[in-house]
């Protein structure tokens, strides 16, 4: 995702909020390289799994989707930071600033990516305050034969971070819709009555009791 596209999305989100779409949420996908951030986004937005998805030519449409949560329409707009940008701290911090909901991601086949989650969480907390709206997601659930991080470890980390936890597969679609729906529900719950939906409008909230959904 280019910085220009990120800016366009944030701006059009603000415009969309005031005009046609009653709700619009900016969701940042954070995590190490090659853990499946982009294919999860593509699975959710385009409802496809493309194994070696090349996002070089992605247009804005590949980053946003309107869907109903509890019978109310909303739009989610993704900030999809690739592994390299994770290392470019200033850029990453700007995008975190623009985000409202945060998906802290690791692959169940990569211990290293799991160990990196706390650092992502700290970056978000440093910028957004102590209790941002976060979710922990373990990707590549269909590759359980290569699993190196147990479900119990994911559950324990989610409990420590005070957020919900899902194990997902972009390949089969498992839990992808449920995770996004749940994140929107958390964003709605956290919205303070005085605020209007838009970048930076989600206030701090009490730590959520963690819930784990695997199935
Ligand atoms: N089987 C399977 N493969 C997956 C899944 N998620 C991602 N992959 C594969 O993992 C590889 C990396 O996926 P990407 O979505 O490009 O990873 P990324 O986190 O966006 O990587 P960067 O943009 O480099 O940070 C690709 O070959 C995907 O097909 C999954 O749920 N199941
Ligand atoms: Mg990517």
Task: Describe this structure as you would to a colleague.
- It is a single chain.
- With 215 residues, this protein is of the alpha/beta class.
- It has one domain: 3-Layer(aba) Sandwich (Rossmann fold), CATH 3.40.50.
- It has helices at residues 3-18, 37-46, 83-87, 89-98, 111-115, 117-128, 151-161, 176-190, and strands at 24-30, 64-69, 72-80, 101-107, 133-139, 164-167, 212-213.
- It has a 7-stranded mixed β-sheet, sandwiched between helices.
- Strand 6 (164-167), helix 8 and strand 7 (212-213) form a beta-alpha-beta unit.
- The radius of gyration is 16 Å and the shape is globular.
- The N and C termini lie far apart (32 Å).
- Mean pLDDT is 85; it is low at 194-204.
- Bound molecules: guanosine-5'-triphosphate (GTP) and magnesium ion.
- Magnesium ion binds at residues 37-38, 55, 80, 82.
- Magnesium ion binds next to helix 2.
What is this structure's SSE topology?
Layout: H1 3-18, E1 24-30, H2 37-46, E2 64-69, E3 72-80, H3 83-87, H4 89-98, E4 101-107, H5 111-115, H6 117-128, E5 133-139, H7 151-161, E6 164-167, H8 176-190, E7 212-213
Parallel strand pairs: 1-3, 1-4, 4-5, 5-6, 6-7
Antiparallel strand pairs: 2-3
This protein binds guanosine-5'-triphosphate and magnesium ion (MG).
Magnesium ion binds at residues 37-38, 55, 80, 82.
Keywords: GTP-binding, Nucleotide-binding
Subcellular location: Cell membrane
Protein name: Ras protein
